[in-house]
Design brief:
Keywords: ATP-binding, Isoprene biosynthesis, Kinase, Nucleotide-binding, Transferase. The chain is an alpha+beta fold. Helix content is about 30%, strand content about 30%.
Length: about 280
């Protein structure tokens, strides 16, 4: 039987870089919220002893795809703990809506959905914390998607504290460029000394993103898109980009602006939600 599972987008409502660690990674403070929009995975389990990706990505070997890696890591962990028959397998297809390199969590969300869905379908019985521990090896954003609740994140993004920001409407736009996260974090101009502050303090301040100045300087397409959106609503970069977003109180206001988007800009309108669509699917909501 084929089952359907959402892999929602996320926004970094704010993002502050508070220091650089000896291992080269950066400490940060960020506020994650999900969107009611994203990729969709179709998953069926079988006894083939194989993980088969029915929709491969051109130029990416299946073994390197986060979807396949997540499934194989869960399978190995389950078999190591004697929670899964030896020949358990799965067939996975994805309807891809989220742009790669967009800063809205496409690959991380896909991986998290595979972990959560196969844990359920295979009945391997891992807790969300155990799944997150597997997922963080695939990417720092995977745990927040596994847990499925809006969160204030610290460390490299793995230390999560539940949060409940206002659920606004967002216009999310992609300028058509792909931005590598390491390029942004290695830029000598990146702010790395923003003071650490409590969530209550940060929620009372205007939300900003320390990566935005570097990205706007390096990518004129992002700079132009942020400048255009700022004419209509509070707008900023999410993550390290390339997507930018503008916040609105109503869906209709967001859609009116999307209709005015410059040529070459791809975008969508979605509601910010504090409970992930994946979590709702798991609960049968």
């Amino acid at each position: 039987m084929i089952t359907h599972w959402p892999a929602p987008a996320k926004l970094n409502l704010f993002l502050y870089i508070t220091g650089r660690r000896p291992d080269g990674y950066h400490n940060l403070q960020t506020l994650f919220q999900f969107l009611d929009y994203g990729d969709e995975l179709q998953i069926s389990v079988d006894h083939s002893d194989a993980i088969q990706l029915l929709t491969p990505v051109p130029g990416v070997a299946d073994a390197d795809n986060l979807i396949v890696r997540a499934a194989n890591m869960l399978k190995q962990a389950a078999q190591d703990n004697h929670r899964l028959p030896a020949r358990a397998g799965a067939q996975i297809a994805i309807e891809k809506r989220l742009p790669m390199g967009g800063g809205i969590g496409g690959g991380s969300s896909d991986a998290a959905t595979v972990l959560v869905a196969l844990n359920h379908l295979w009945q391997t019985g891992f807790t969300p914390d155990e799944l997150a521990a597997i997922g963080v090896k695939l990417g720092a954003d995977v745990p927040v998607f596994v847990h499925g609740f809006a969160a204030f994140a610290e460390g490299v993004g793995e230390q999560l504290q539940p949060a409940a920001p206002e659920e606004k409407w967002y216009l999310v736009a992609h300028p058509g460029v792909n931005i590598s996260t390491p390029v942004v974090f290695n830029d000598p101009g990146l702010t790395r000394d923003t003071p650490s502050r409590s969530l209550s303090t940060l929620l009372a301040l205007p939300f900003t993103n320390d990566c935005e100045a570097v990205v706007r300087k390096r990518f004129r397409e992002v700079d132009a898109l942020v400048s255009w959106l700022l004419e209509y609503a509070p707008s900023r970069l999410t993550g390290t980009g390339a997507c930018v977003f503008a916040e609105f109180d109503t869906e209709s206001a967001a859609r009116q602006v999307l209709e005015l988007a410059p040529n070459g800009v791809r975008g969508f309108v979605a509601r910010g939600v504090n409970v992930s669509p994946l979590q709702r699917t798991l609960r049968g909501d």
